[in-house]
């Protein structure tokens, strides 16, 4: 009788034990999510400060009589140190949190740049004019903060260890192989239109950047996760997949920077920032969801709220970058039409000599 009673007590104690382990696992997942999100926010914030410090250094040297090169100033080296520190924080964040959470947090750098730009404005505005001038930036920052909060709150909680076996298993899975086939075909088509048909539309260029960037973040997470496990004592550097991922990470990052450089030569930086953020984030989240199965086991409500957070962050970044001033093209201080007659006469003589030497017609000299 006592034996049956004790057995019944043991059976009654089993459910609370399993539920408590599930709660502890969920809290551990949330803790890792929080660590990864804080590292990403810190990294993007520091990178934004570093870029503005280096920009300030260039502007100050250009507006002064200081003959030193920019790399001989303490400000520029401080910016470089902060940039490396920030990039290290972003890199480490991929080892703790899902890729779908870390990628959209790059909106923090846009928010920080907007706030720094407003703080260090040298013009004096009246309060009414100031609010009217920067109302879009304020609204955009608010929306981006709300979107970031939703992203962190409703992000997926998948925390698979990035061992060599797991990375290899994901790499050869049929959903990712199918995704890679579609991405390669799309990339080749876009590259053909860009190179052969001179399709220099910003969407075409930034789609190339986004497709490369999706592979960059996938490989970054694998490399960062395997490095963290190795530091913790579970050596992963003897797996060939680590070096395959590392080479792919470096190669895609280099080509991504090359396409971004070409885009910056043709389009405004604010337009590149907004369109690039939207395209890169969308494609990177898709790649992470397919490769790392980020949203497996998530309920519909969490997925919808996460998507809503992405949309709000997209709108916030668009409003922030839309309010930035466009670069003013260089204009000479002296118009050629306002030059004295003697200078015009000299120009006509020089053009006449050039025309005679090249056997060119010079019947339009008076138009000069």
Write the SSE topology.
Layout: H1 2-62, H2 74-93, H3 99-102, H4 107-119, H5 127-133, H6 135-153, H7 164-171, H8 174-195, H9 202-231, H10 240-266, H11 269-291, H12 300-322, H13 341-358
What can you see in these coordinates?
The structure is a single chain. This protein is mostly helical and 368 residues long. It contains 13 helices and no strands. It has a domain of 132 residues. Helix content is 75%, strand content 0%. α1 packs antiparallel against α2, α4 runs parallel beside α12 and α8 runs antiparallel to α9. The longest helix is centred in the N-terminal third of the chain and has 61 residues. The radius of gyration is 28 Å and the shape is globular.
Describe what is shown at a glance:
Keywords: Membrane, Transmembrane, Transmembrane helix. The chain is mostly helical and about 375 residues long.
């Amino acid at each position: 009788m006592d034996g049956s009673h004790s057995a019944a007590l043991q059976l009654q104690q089993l459910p609370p034990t399993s539920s408590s382990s599930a709660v502890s696992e969920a809290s551990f997942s949330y803790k890792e999510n929080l660590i990864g999100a804080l590292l990403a926010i810190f990294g993007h914030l520091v990178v934004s400060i570093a870029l503005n410090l280096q920009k300030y250094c260039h502007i100050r040297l250009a507006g002064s009589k200081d003959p030193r090169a920019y790399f001989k100033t303490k400000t520029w080296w401080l910016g470089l140190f902060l940039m490396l520190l920030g990039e290290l924080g972003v890199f480490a964040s991929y080892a703790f949190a899902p890729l779908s959470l870390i990628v959209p947090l790059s909106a923090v750098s846009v928010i920080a740049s907007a706030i720094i730009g407003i703080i260090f404005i040298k013009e004096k505005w009246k309060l009414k004019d100031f609010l009217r001038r920067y109302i879009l930036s304020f609204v955009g920052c608010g929306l981006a903060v709300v979107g970031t909060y939703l992203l962190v709150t409703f992000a997926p909680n998948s925390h698979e260890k990035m061992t060599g076996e797991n990375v290899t298993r994901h790499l050869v899975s049929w959903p990712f192989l199918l995704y890679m086939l579609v991405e390669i075909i799309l990339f080749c088509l876009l590259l053909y239109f860009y190179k052969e048909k001179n399709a220099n539309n910003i969407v075409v260029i930034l789609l190339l950047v986004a497709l490369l960037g999706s592979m960059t973040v996938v490989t970054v997470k694998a490399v960062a996760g395997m490095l963290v496990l190795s530091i913790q004592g579970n050596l992963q550097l003897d797996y060939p997949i680590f070096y395959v991922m590392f080479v792919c990470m470096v190669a895609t990052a280099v080509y991504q920077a090359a396409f971004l450089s070409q885009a910056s030569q043709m389009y405004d930086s604010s337009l590149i920032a907004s369109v690039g953020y939207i395209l890169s984030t969308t494609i990177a989240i898709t790649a992470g969801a397919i490769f790392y199965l980020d949203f497996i086991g998530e309920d519909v409500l969490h997925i919808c709220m996460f998507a809503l957070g992405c949309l709000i962050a997209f709108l916030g970044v668009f409003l922030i970058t839309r309010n930035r001033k466009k670069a003013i093209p260089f204009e000479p201080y002296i118009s050629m039409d306002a030059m004295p007659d003697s200078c015009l006469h000299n120009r006509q003589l020089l053009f006449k000599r050039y025309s005679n030497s090249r056997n060119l017609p010079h019947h339009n000299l008076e138009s000069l």
